[in-house]
Automatic annotation (TrEMBL):
Annotated family: Belongs to the eIF-3 subunit H family.
Compartments where located: Cytoplasm
Coiled coil, from the record: 228-255
Organism the protein comes from: Emiliania huxleyi (strain CCMP1516)
CC per GO annotation: eukaryotic 43S preinitiation complex; eukaryotic 48S preinitiation complex; eukaryotic translation initiation factor 3 complex
The protein's name: Eukaryotic translation initiation factor 3 subunit H
Molecular-function annotations in GO: metallopeptidase activity; translation initiation factor activity
Complex formation: Component of the eukaryotic translation initiation factor 3 (eIF-3) complex.
InterPro entries, per database record: eIF3h (IPR027524), eIF3h_C (IPR045810), JAMM/MPN+_dom (IPR000555), JAMM_MPN+_peptidase_M67A (IPR050242), MPN (IPR037518)
GO biological process, one term: formation of cytoplasmic translation initiation complex
Function: Component of the eukaryotic translation initiation factor 3 (eIF-3) complex, which is involved in protein synthesis of a specialized repertoire of mRNAs and, together with other initiation factors, stimulates binding of mRNA and methionyl-tRNAi to the 40S ribosome. The eIF-3 complex specifically targets and initiates translation of a subset of mRNAs involved in cell proliferation.
Keywords: Coiled coil, Cytoplasm, Initiation factor, Protein biosynthesis
């Protein structure tokens, strides 16, 4: 999923933003939540200096009702009111993106794509911040930043994800989202406070974190493999849709050829009899109506999910092998 080229932007998070996002997402688990990111963009750097959560459906004024449009309107009104209040107290209120919580890479779906597309349509540098608690055990950093690539934005703007459109756009399956590097910024006062609180947090001497040497990796790998299998099944269903379309297209072409051959024979017979022959309008004939081609967007997103799962398995397995080799060396040294 992430592009191997140099990232177009860098996301710089204020320490307070990290704490607020983690607190909101962690307290809502296992439910998923979203929120707004505020700050400013300076050159290639997007500085996120503040954030606030979006109300859940159960908390929303318009939530729980049958009218989703009214709920969306109340949500937009809530955002505007929050930014107005922040502006009144002289806090950054410029929107630079949004955040959401998820497990692994399950955020790669059409609803997320549509939301991020709308953000980038109005704010070119808008970013998506993803909180994944499962990554804490794997990498220690549960936050990742993404944005849609320019190639995918152009293709999504056209709204046509046929085989011909995807091939003409020359869009690699790994270039839907672009992962951006994250930097966390602390003020000097915050850093001094953390150093002052370090003895009270019962941290080991030298800041050693022996939890990183934990060898119990089965749950993480099993879940990743399970998600990969599910994606493979979903991709097979998308492939079946395409095969069904191709079979219907071939049958339609055969029926068209037989129909035209029949009309050609009838026309020749009428000419032999000296009868007048009029050209037939085939536009209203159901045999000549094109069969709608299935969208390839879902298959493209599933392929991105599978690639992301494989990258996470590869990274986590590499760390696990390093731990096992270290443990083997320690055991051999002790003997």
């Amino acid at each position: 999923m992430p592009s191997t080229a140099e990232p177009s932007m860098v996301v710089e998070l204020d320490g307070l933003v990290v704490l607020k996002v983690l607190n909101h997402c962690q307290s809502a688990l296992p439910s998923f939540v979203t929120g707004q990111l505020l700050g400013m963009d300076i050159g290639r750097t997007v500085e996120v200096t503040n954030c606030f959560p979006f109300p859940g459906k159960s908390e929303d004024v318009g939530g729980g009702g049958a009218d989703d449009a009214a709920g969306d309107g109340d949500g937009a009104e809530y955002q505007m009111e929050m930014m107005r209040c922040l502006r009144d107290v002289n806090v950054d209120n410029n929107t630079v993106g949004w955040y959401q919580s998820t497990y692994f890479s399950s955020f790669i779906e059409e609803s997320c794509i549509e939301t991020q597309f709308n953000y980038q349509q109005h704010i070119k540098t808008a970013v998506l911040l993803v909180y994944d608690p499962a990554r804490t055990r794997a990498t220690g950093m549960p936050l990742r930043a993404f944005r849609l690539t320019d190639h995918f934005m152009a293709l999504y703007r056209e709204g046509k994800f046929t085989l011909q459109a995807v091939a003409a756009a020359n869009l690699p399956r790994s270039e839907v989202f672009e992962e951006l590097p994250l930097k966390v910024r602390h003020s000097h006062l915050s850093s001094a406070l953390l150093l002052d609180l370090q003895p009270e947090c019962n941290l080991p001497a030298g800041g050693a974190d022996f939890a990183r040497l934990e060898l119990h990796t089965n749950p993480f790998l099993e879940k990743q493999m399970q998600l990969l299998i599910e994606c493979t099944d979903d991709l097979q269903q998308e492939s079946s849709k395409l095969q069904h379309y191709e079979r219907n297209t071939q049958r339609q072409k055969a029926a068209q050829a037989a129909y035209l051959q029949k009309k050609k024979a009838e026309k020749a017979a009428k000419l032999l009899k000296g009868e007048e022959v009029a050209d037939e309008d085939t536009s209203s004939n159901p045999l000549f109506k094109p069969i709608p081609q299935p969208s390839r967007l879902e298959a493209l997103l599933i392929a991105n999910q599978m690639q992301s799962y494989c990258q996470q398995i590869n990274a986590f397995s590499g760390q696990s092998f390093a731990k096992l080799f270290l443990l083997q060396s320690l055991n051999s040294g002790a003997q």
